[in-house]
Design a protein that fits this description.
Blueprint (H helix, E strand, L loop, with lengths): L5 E10 L3 E4 L11 H11 L3 E6 H14 L8 H9 L5 E4 L12 E4 L3 H11 L2 E5 L3 H9 L5 E7 L7 E4 L7 E11 L3 E10 L8
Parallel strand pairs: 1-6, 1-7, 3-4, 3-6, 4-5
Antiparallel strand pairs: 2-8, 7-10, 9-10
Helix pairs in contact: 1-3, 2-3
Length: about 200
């Protein structure tokens, strides 16, 4: 029997109360710092294939293109991070987008995402890592395909303006911590091995 050759990581940024973004707030809630951005740049140089859905593709490819333009509103560190995404191998799951995709190094998959990722884990190397795409993350986790669950928690509560509640629709999941780190004295990275559970922990 063949062994899994690629690791699947769900990779998310969240507010403390579990939102992916918030109305009126800038990207990264305006709290990205040089240490965090440098870490993102280093991560992009690893053997990583980024997975995303059509909506995330449209947003991120647009931001990456804007960052490459003269007079961009992004800081140099933000611009470098966004521009760097163009060089990263990307797989886009969509039944509406058509080839060829304009963003460099983007591969389109129009079939079932869960089955496609299941096959990719067997045939590819390195790390498969999600970007945004909450419904994709939820489907992959529910299918038991996720090897690592990584969060960067931003120190804000967006109870009034928060959008895209990350954990809605999730199964019950136990999390075994394998790494933690603080960026710029305020952002907390938490990395776990997830285990879907049928009953509350401590019972059974």
């Amino acid at each position: 029997m063949s062994e899994t050759t690629a690791t699947l990581m769900v990779d998310l940024i969240i507010s403390l109360d579990g939102y992916a973004s918030a109305d009126g707030w800038p990207g990264w809630w305006g709290l990205e710092g040089p240490e965090y951005l440098a870490w993102l740049g280093e991560e992009s140089k690893k053997d990583v294939t980024t997975l995303m859905g059509a909506n995330t593709y449209r947003v991120m490819s647009g931001m990456s293109g804007q960052a490459a333009e003269a007079g961009s509103e992004f800081s140099k560190e933000e611009g470098d991070t966004l521009e760097g995404l163009a060089a990263v191998p990307k797989v886009i799951f969509s039944s509406t987008l058509k080839e060829p995709l304009a963003w460099p190094n983007s591969e389109l998959v129009s079939g079932d995402a869960v089955e496609a990722v299941r096959e990719m884990k067997q045939t590819r190397t390195g790390t498969l890592s999600t970007l945004g795409s909450l419904s994709l993350c939820r489907s992959l986790l529910s299918a038991g395909l996720v090897d690592r669950y990584r969060l960067v928690v931003f120190p804000v509560i967006t109870g009034k303006t928060g959008r895209e509640r990350i954990y809605d629709g999730y199964p019950d999941v136990a999390l075994d911590m394998v790494e933690s780190r603080t960026f710029d004295g305020r952002l907390q990275l938490l990395e776990y091995v997830p285990r879907i559970i049928d009953a509350p922990l401590g019972r059974g």
